[in-house]
Every structure is written in C-alpha cells, then in structure tokens.
Amino acid sequence: MYRMGFGAAAIAAVLCVPAMGEEARPGRGGVPERAAGGYSAIQARNLRADTTFLASEALDGRRSLARGSEAAIQFAVAEFAKAGLKPAAGNSYLQPVPLIEYRVQPSGTQVSLESGGRTTTWKYFQDVWGGAPNEFRVRAPVVFAGYGITAPEFGYDDYAGLDVRGKIVLLFDHEPQEGNPSSVFNGLGNTRHANSLVKVLNAQKHGAVGVLLAAEPNRKHPSTQDRMARVPGGAVRMRRLAPQALAESEARIPLLTVSDAAAAELLRPAGKSPSALQAAMDRDLKPASTVLAGSVVEMRLELEERRRGVSHNVLGVLEGSDPVLKSETILLGAHYDHDGVWNGDFYPGADDNASGTAAVLELARAFAANSLRPRRTLIFALFAAEERGLLGAYHYVAQPPRPIEQTRAIINFDMIGRNETPSPQTDGLIHIDEDTSNQLNLIGTNYSPGYRAAVERWNRVVGLDLNYKWDADAALNVYQRSDQFPFALRDIPAVWWFTGFHPDYHQTTDTADRINYAKMEKIVRLAYLTAWEFADGDRVPEFVSRPGPPKP
User: Fold this and answer.
1) Cα 267 from Cα 281, distance rounded (Å)
2) What are phi and psi of 27, to 5 degrees?
3) Are 382 and 314 contacting, i.e. CB atoms less than 8 angstroms apart?
4) If DSSP codes are grouped into helix, strand and coil, which group holds residue 139?
C-alpha cells in the first residue's frame, strides 16, 4: 500500500489536501508552492490547439508507419525540444520501434483436426481468426489446458501435472469465476492473467508449440470477435486494415482463435461438453486440464503481404533534482497513432488519442516551466502503434532507456477528451451515468490502492468525479487495452486515465470540435499534482500482485 512520507500533516488536515514535506507546503488553493508555477501554466487553449492540429487532415489520421504518423512524431519532438526536455534515447528523442506489417492469406490459413480416423478443417474468417508476422505450419497432439493460467498468488495452475511439451494447447479465454463477485480473480473484473499474450507466454514457458484460444462457452459477454463487430465498421476493419507486430517479440509460438463449434469438436475426446468443463473449473476453482487422446492438430498460416518498417516512441526527460532519487523514474505517457485514412475515409482520432498526446505535451511544458524540479526523474513518453496491439509500449518495457525496475509509476492517458455516453460497444455491458461531463475513469488502481489514494487526495483540489467501474469489467477487457498494461505486467503501478467510450469511437466523427476542453484541463491539472507527489514525495505507490475485488 502507498504510505505517505511527508511532514506537515496538520496543515494538510486543515486544508483538506495531501500532506506535504516542509519544502513543499500547500500554497494557495492547496497546490504545493514548489509546483505552483507549472500548475498554473496548464491551459485549455493549449490542449485545444494541440488536439486540433493532431486531429487535422494534415496528419491523415496518424496511422502507424504512414505519413501522418511520421508528422505527429516530428511535431512531438519539436515540442519536447522547445519545452527544454532532454532526449531519452542517447542524443535523440526517438526510440526506434521495428515493426512488421502483414496481411494474412485466407485460403492458406486454417486449423485441421485429425481424430477418430477423420479430418475436420476450419477456415479463416469462418471458424479461425488471428495472425502473425511470420508464416507457420505446426502439427502436434493437442491438450486442453483450461484457462492456460499459472497464478501462484491465487493458488491456481492449469498446468499442474500436465505435460504439454511439444504439444498444441487449447485454452479458454478470460479466467475462472469472472461472474463471481467473491472470486479471488478480482471479483467481477479481470486480472493480468486474462490476457491472451500472457497465456501464450505461459504456454511457451511450459514447452507448448502452439496455442488455440476459444471463448468461454458459458460466457455472459460477447466474444472478442463479437465485441469488435459491435463498433460500426469494426468487422470490416478487422479484415481490411493490415495488422502490425513487433519485429522482435517475446512470443515465439503461434496463436489462433477458434470458434465455439471448433472448440466443441476439439474437446470431444474429453468426454465432457465445453460448458461442463468450464462449470467445473468455475465451481471448484480447480483445473480440468486433460490430454485429448488420439487428436492431432495442424495450425497453418500463410501471408499474402509482409513488409518491415520502423516507427518511433518519442521520449523526453526532465531529470530529477535529488542526487539519489533522480535514478528513479515517473512516466507520463500516451499513444499518438490512430487509424489513418483507409477505405476512402479519414479517421481524425481526436479523442483517441490526440487528446492524450496533447496532455503529455502540456505536462512536459508545465513541469519544464516550473521554477523547481521534483526529486525523481520524469519521462514523457508518446508511444507508437498502440492501435496495433500496444506495440510501442511493449517495446519500451523490453528495451527501456532507463532501468525498468526503477520506474515507480506510470500515468497513461488514452481518450481523455469526451463525456462518456452509451454506444453499441457498451450497450448492456456497463453502466454509464447520465451526466459524465465532469467524470474521469481510472483503470487499474486495484493493483495499486496507494496510487488511487494519491489521486483522490489531489482531486480535493481539482474537483473531478472519479469513477472506478472499469476495474470491475470482464466483458470488454478494457484493463488490457491501453499502454499502461505492459507496465503492469512488470509489477509497476500503472493506471489508465480515461473519460470513456462514445458513439464516435473509431469513427470518422471523432473530431476536435467535440472535445470537452474544460474537463481536459482539469484532468491534466490533476495528473500534474499526482505526478508531482509521485516524483517529489518520500514514498511512491506500491504494486499489489494479488488485488482484492475492486472498491466502488
């Protein structure tokens, strides 16, 4: 838990603001005197100017590896330099992110099952989905490994007593008991173990040669394919917008997703229906893993296009003032990419995520303009290729410019410019308040209650309505869907600041004129005060590997 390590508690109690050290007493309005100059420099007009430019047609929607994305990169470099930040990657603000863009050949991509003397083949985009930047053809016996989770902190291991070396594993998506509010797996929400990449890496660690992923048969939410199809144009986007992947990835074995029908046929040798297998695991929280005797699977993927390219994370540094603590890092980040121009349409991405990019730029100016620096070092990070799978953030944690174990917290901005309103993506899956004009969602604080406490203390100064409902979400997997997640996998307190979905999400109508800039200013000011405490205080928030059910 986060422990306050400051001095003047009595003053703070009277003023109803966070307790601060003698050198950082609360000033007018509860803002620390040491930080007041930067706080007052944050202005809605700057956020409007940056968001409007980034979402303009001149930047073509900032699609990764396209011209507009490169223009956004150069704009960010110029703004970091003007603010007086130092380059984070040697003498450059740019951290190269090597990528591969590819397109799957549907006719050559399939999953085949040989069992009981017959062969069943499932075709791409009918019963098989997914992709990879490299072609593969893997043939091996298949084993059912439950949810594919090894979680010692919860006393659960789907691989206990199961030998999967040289085999393909069939897994259920998500995690056990996600409909049980008392579940050790974060109650009604999800933990890090629900993530498909985490499952692939775990299978790889146990010696598997491939992964087939199936939606849980007893789910009370859309499958991943159904969820993406809820976004207008989402199904077309899945088929026609070329995926990208890191040129170097931790995952070295293939993953394909299969339909409910394919999963049922694959599981036939288990002697129990998929529904019964899941019900048993969810009831007893005990694995139901089993060898699917006499079954051999072939996973095959062919590509029709493949090209290499390099995008960049843009990283600026404001070095801390303390000779010892400056070796520790607080990171403020956002992704700058969006969907670009495709199918003849322009996708501005004003909220997603010109708004977050503008917040990082404004915070860089604010901290650099402040007369005093906090004791820890700040890194301002604009991540590449988030829309293609958090690729820039995953690359950062794998190749950090400063030791990742010295990173104490990350504030991640992704879509902080709108008022949350009902949309096809969220209908029937999450409650949305009638008035969200002053509301900010914080996602991931159940892994760091101290982080949440710090934000709440400073919010007494700013006055936003804070909401934590997405920490209890399992239907939309929101916790896994932005750039804070790769940091959370490294046990770093990492929270996504988010104002919610709306009907313009990933649409041509996500334009700068629809942004609530007054609320954006309040969010950025709250982030400034929170980051100041993280960077200047005697204590930093701690990561809790076994979170309890989310608090309301």
Assistant:
1) 15
2) -105, -150
3) yes
4) strand
| Residue 95, helix vs strand vs coil | strand
Q: Tell me whether the CATH fold assigned to 9-99+308-418+425-536 matches the one assigned to 106-301.
A: no
Q: How many CA atoms lie within 13 A of 169 on its CB side?
A: 31
∠ Cα 318 2 459 (to 5°): 70
Q: Of 200-214, 411-425, 538-552, which gets the smallest average pLDDT?
A: 538-552
Strands (E) across 418-532 are located at 439-443, 465-467, 494-498
Q: What is the pLDDT of residue 236?
A: 75
pLDDT band at 237 (very low <50, low <70, confident <90, very high): confident
What tens digit of pLDDT does each residue of 170-204 get?
999 999 999 899 999 988 899 999 999 999 999 99
Please state whether the peptide bond connecting residue 353 to the residue before it is cis, i.e. omega within 30 degrees of 0. yes
Give the ranges where 441-511 is alpha helix by DSSP (H). Answer: 449-462, 485-488
Which residue has tokens 């010692």? 152
Decide if 536 contacts 408 (C-beta within 8 A): no
Q: Which helix (H) or strand (E) holds 329?
A: strand 329-335
Q: Furthest-apart CA pair in the chain: how many Å? A: 79
Contact 408, 534 (CB under 8 A): yes
What's the average model confidence in pLDDT over 461-468? 98
Looking at the DSSP bridge assignments, the partners of residue 139 are: 298
Q: Are 483 and 495 in contact (CB under 8 A)?
A: no
Question: Domain locations in the chain?
Answer: 9-99+308-418+425-536, 106-301
Number of other residues whose CB lies within 10 A of the CB of residue 101 = 18
What is the C-alpha separation between 398 and 248, in angstroms, rounded? 10
d(CA 496, CA 480): 10
Per the structure block, which two tokens stand in for 40?
Answer: 């007052």
Which pair of tokens denotes residue 185? Answer: 């797996």
CATH of domain 9-99+308-418+425-536: 3.40.630.10
Task: Give me 305's structure tokens.
Answer: 């296009």
Architecture of the structural domain at 106-301: 3-Layer(bba) Sandwich (3.50)
Whether 132 and 301 have beta carbons less than 8 Å apart is answered as yes
